[in-house]
Request: fold
Amino acid sequence: DIQMTQSPSSLSASVGDRVTITCRASQDINNFLVWYQQKPGKAPKVLIYAASTLQSGVPSRFSGSGSGTDFTLTISSLQPEDVANYYCQKYDTEPRTFGPGTKVEIK
Amino acid sequence: EVQLVESGGAVVQPGGSLRLSCIGSGFTFDDYTMHWVRQSPGKGLEWVSLISWDGTGTSYADSVKGRFTISRDNTKNSLHLHMNNLRIEDSALYFCGKETYGAGKIEDWGQGTMVIVSS
Reply:
């Protein structure tokens, strides 16, 4: 099975900072990748799908890039409401593995 | 408005069984692939299982294969997860989710139902 990794596992940044989270697949998954945001006590929310397509209603400060094995989620200007856990998930084939997550905090 | 409501979570002993349910409304239930995803307290998301729109295709995470069975009843807009031989590590909040057709993303989620496996 394809394994998913994320880095860093956590980060602390200031409001307005550019934040980058990396997701790596152990094999080529083309662009079949989703990014989710999950706030405490809530269900996950789709931010990006097909690696780089912004979900409707998601602020444009979020963007995704990558293809194959290496993917990036970028928050161009971190806002207080972006404090959350972020997960990538592959959907090229089953199992639909999630990455281990990245916790984003405000410095 | 799409709604997914899970139920059936409980405290159960190791080796026990449980059936989770998820009722969907606000959409044409039998058009969509459905998922179960779980999250242990303080941990990350773990994909558990999916079932195709008509129930003919299923898939499972290795961690639950042979112990869990996913099913659906499209006449009742319901999704189920039959869990057997439960282990302590199966303790988690179980979410059901609706996959957007052709896009792979789980766009709609329930609020989750809690399973605690403990002696």
Notes: Chain A touches chain B at residues 1, 32, 34, 36, 38, 43-44, 46, 49-50, 55, 85, 87, 89, 91, 94-101 (CB under 8 Å). Residues 85 and 91 of chain A are 20 Å apart (CA to CA). The beta strands of chain A are 4-7, 10-13, 19-25, 33-38, 45-49, 53-54, 62-67, 70-75, 84-90, 102-106.
